[in-house]
Design goal:
Elements (H helix, E strand, L loop, with lengths): L14 H21 L13 E5 L7 E5 L6 E5 L6 H9 L6 E6 L5 E8 L6 H12 L7 E11 L4 E10 H13 L3 E7 L18 H6 L3 H43 L5 H12 L5 H11 L4 E8 L3 E8 L2 H8 L9 E7 L5 E8 L8
Organism: Methylorubrum aminovorans
Protein name: Fimbrial assembly family protein
InterPro entries: ATPase_NBD
């Protein structure tokens, strides 16, 4: 195996990063398809440098430099240790030099498939699934691109050409170009530049981004127009929403004014009287008594009414229990109504707690 076929170490992207970029770009692909954005023939664009990789039996790499009036041709050995240095020497002191890479068709796996037209927005994903299912290639181990050869309009079918090259053949050259400071791309396939296929293997089968960043101003105008339409639709929706809410507020306010007071005065007075004669809340009173009583006292019975509470206690220390009941919120000083002997030397007390928040709404 020659050096140009050896896998490049350390070039494998993380699966998470690839998944995120793939999902983003597939969204762009679908959007570009529905917006009708055209594609750019990246394989026919002029580049300062053209690098040609011959058939598998050809070991040299041909570099054509067109930056001067007379093109210059160099033949380099990609297996040489100084291959990146020689590429850098060809680049010279000029920065931002790009190179178009032209692969011989014999280096690639090329096939034609008939697929439904409905698959066009997701063509990359469909081809990747089909490639993994019917060939020994894995999508992550190859560079690939596709284009539509023909269309059967009545049958709603497309004839698609799918071009695949192993990363082991292309990645070492891309690594050498990067080391030499040369930007690679596009990477196309053909016997010569005039008969190259309309693909860019570095696109990974995504066609929308290539069209958006290309020289076609019509695509950019369509994209800008679509963005303006979306913005106008959003602003119009918000304005309609605000106007609707304002109209509802005005209608509710007018309806309340027309209906008069929410409750007649006689009903309000009756409600206040009923609430004023209610006993204190049972649960809140039990909680207050439990918090106030010492451990030596326990309540066995509680009766509540408008005037207060009648509490039956079982205590060992009568004075301590009465002193504790004086601190119950919402009630006055306790009045000992009855005191008698209980079981096991305890005292049974009946205590009245007058209510101090009489009339307050609980």
């Amino acid at each position: 195996m020659s050096a140009i076929e050896a896998p490049a170490p350390g070039r494998g992207p993380s699966p998470l990063g690839m998944a995120g970029r793939t999902a983003l770009r597939e969204g762009f692909d679908s959007t570009a398809h529905w917006l009708g954005l055209g594609e750019i023939r990246a394989d026919r664009e002029d580049a300062p440098l053209t690098i040609r990789l011959g058939a598998p039996g050809v070991t040299d790499v041909t570099v054509i430099d067109r930056r001067e009036a007379e093109p210059r041709t160099h033949r380099l050995d990609p297996s040489a240790e100084d291959f990146p240095a020689r590429l850098s020497a060809i680049r010279g002191a000029q920065a931002g030099v790009g190179a178009k890479v032209l692969l011989d068709p014999a280096l690639c796996f090329i096939r034609s498939l008939s697929l439904p037209s409905a698959a066009l927005p997701r063509m990359r994903a469909v081809l990747a699934q089909e490639l993994e299912a019917t060939t020994p290639f894995k999508p992550e181990s190859v560079h690939s691109d596709w284009y539509v050869e023909s269309e059967d309009v009545p049958g709603r079918m497309l004839r698609v050409r799918h071009v695949v090259v192993k990363r082991g053949r292309l990645d070492p050259l891309l690594a050498a170009l990067a080391e030499a400071g040369i930007a690679a791309g596009p990477v196309t396939v053909g016997t010569d530049e005039a008969r190259s296929l309309p693909i860019d293997l570095l696109s990974g089968g995504h066609h929308s981004l290539r069209g958006l960043v290309g020289p076609g101003r019509g695509n950019l105008a369509l994209l800008a127009g679509a963005a303006l339409l979306l913005l106008a639709a959003f602003l119009g929706f918000r304005a309609h929403q605000d106007a609707t809410l304002s109209a509802l507020d005005t209608a509710f306010a007018a309806a309340r004014r027309a209906a008069g007071p929410p409750v007649p005065p006689t009903v309000q007075a009756g409600t206040a009287a009923i609430l004023g004669r209610r006993a204190p809340p049972l649960g809140r009173t039990w909680d207050a008594l439990a918090a106030a009583l010492p451990d030596s006292a326990s309540a066995t019975d509680l009766r509540l009414d408008y005037d207060g509470a009648q509490l039956t206690l079982s205590v060992t220390d009568e004075a301590a229990a009465l002193a504790a009941l004086a601190r119950v919120p919402g009630f006055g000083a306790p009045f000992l109504q009855e005191s008698s002997s209980g079981l096991e030397g305890r005292r049974r007390l009946v205590v009245l707690l007058p209510r101090t928040d009489r009339g307050a709404q609980p």
